[in-house]
Write a structure and sequence with these properties.
The chain is an alpha/beta fold. The protein is 41% helix and 18% strand. It has helices at 6-17, 33-48, 70-73, 81-90, 108-114, 144-154, 163-177, 187-198, 203-211, 216-229, 245-250, 296-303, 321-331, 336-340, and strands at residues 22-27, 52-57, 74-76, 93-97, 119-123, 134-137, 230-233, 238-243, 273-279, 284-290, 307-308, 312-317. Helix 7 (163-177) crosses helix 9. Bound molecules: guanosine-5'-monophosphate and manganese (II) ion.
Length: 342
């Protein structure tokens, strides 16, 4: 099935068939299951097709994603900056995956600004702000992993998609849809899922590593958040959870531990908007989620330097935690009309 602009597809096909040998794939900072899954899936296909390809992630990723082989094929920019610079310099083309704004490159942004390499963007976020030479952007799909499959199919490279790559792509789809719970109504996604399983992807194993692989401390942190830290503002159909650096330390926080926490309050009857504030060393990182028409990405863009999708977005702010929370709470009355719609 071809959904991409034929011209762009043809040009990329031509490039890959001629001058391109070395490829670097880059997902967004604080990579999640889709960022890692789509990158490793594409990487596997390109390697099987004979290219020299690596994945460079801006910073470390959650350990539950190691089962995809990420440990062996992925370099972490913050940990081996010099080597990453070499690989980027040698690259004939760069693939940017699962983000729509260069700010999401983290510390890599500065270096990549200077280097003049052709860029292919594959992403499912709205309003891409990246000047890519070749753009594969579609907000209707479940995930970037789904889009990578479409990309591989359009380039007639599906023969190179085997077990490892299929597992990685299915991980991306499962992670971004919350196991087929949201953004998962389009039949084409299920066609792709079926084909990935045919190629050896193991749905049970992926579910185990994504959802049944947590430390005891992480489970207790979740319990603590729900019983002690969840604030419900019924009149604004909103819930809020926040965690200080001290609390994170107390529960032996590791990257990825709090992934998904922001979704839980949406199970409370009447709640359509949730926010999760977490204290980092020099800023507050925030996740937003909503049900229905409330645009969390517009809210995040307007007040918290962020963006994302309508129902799932993020942002950050350089304020002390209590001031950031005050700001958030003070904004709710201004949005009450929009929140009431759902
Ligand atoms: P999460 O809350 O899981 O970190 O992110 C949810 C969604 O929002 C993802 O699609 C992610 O790419 C996007 N997102 C998260 N943080 C930011 C941010 O600081 N800026 C922008 N533009 N998007 C973000
Ligand atoms: Mn994604």
């Amino acid at each position: 099935m071809k959904r991409f602009d034929e011209n762009t597809t043809e040009k990329v096909k031509e490039l890959l068939g001629s001058e391109v040998k070395n490829i670097v794939i880059i997902p967004h900072v604080n990579p999640d299951g889709d960022a890692i899954g789509s990158s490793l899936g594409l990487n596997d296909v390109l390697r099987n097709a004979g290219f020299t390809s690596v994945v460079i992630v801006p910073n470390d990723f959650p350990t539950y994603l190691n089962c995809l082989g990420g440990e062996e094929t992925t370099l972490i920019y913050e940990q081996c900056t010099w080597l990453c610079h070499q690989l980027i310099n040698q690259a004939d083309i760069l693939f940017f995956l699962d983000f729509n704004d260069v700010k999401r490159l983290g510390k890599l942004e500065t270096y990549l600004k200077e280097c003049n390499k052709p860029i292919v963007l594959i992403d499912h976020h709205p309003d891409p702000q990246i000047k890519a030479d070749y753009m594969f952007s579609d907000t209707d799909v479940s995930s970037t992993a789904e889009l990578v499959y479409d990309f591989i199919e359009s380039l007639e490279m599906l023969d190179h998609l085997v077990k490892n790559g299929a597992n990685a792509l299915l991980t991306g789809i499962i992670a971004d849809t919350g196991s087929f719970n949201h953004n998962a109504s389009r039949p084409n996604m299920y066609r792709i899922v079926g084909d990935l399983i045919n190629r050896g992807a193991d749905k049970e194993k992926i579910n185990e590593s994504l959802y049944n692989n947590f430390s005891e401390k992480r489970m207790r942190l979740l319990g603590y958040c729900l019983s002690e830290k969840m604030e419900i503002y019924q009149q604004y159909k909103t819930a809020l959870i926040w965690l200080s650096a001290e609390e994170l330390k107390r529960f032996d926080f590791h990257p990825g531990d709090t992934e998904g926490f922001v979704n839980y309050p949406l199970s409370v009857k009447g709640i359509v908007f949730t926010a999760f504030f977490i204290e980092k060393y020099d800023h507050i990182k925030i996740s937003f989620r909503s049900k229905g028409s409330f645009s969390t990405n517009e809210f995040s863009g307007a007040h918290f330097n962020g963006g994302g999708h309508r129902n799932a977005s993020g942002g950050e702010i350089k304020l002390p935690m209590q001031e950031a929370l005050l700001l958030f709470r003070s904004l709710l009355p201004k949005y009450s009309e929009l929140l009431e719609k759902d």
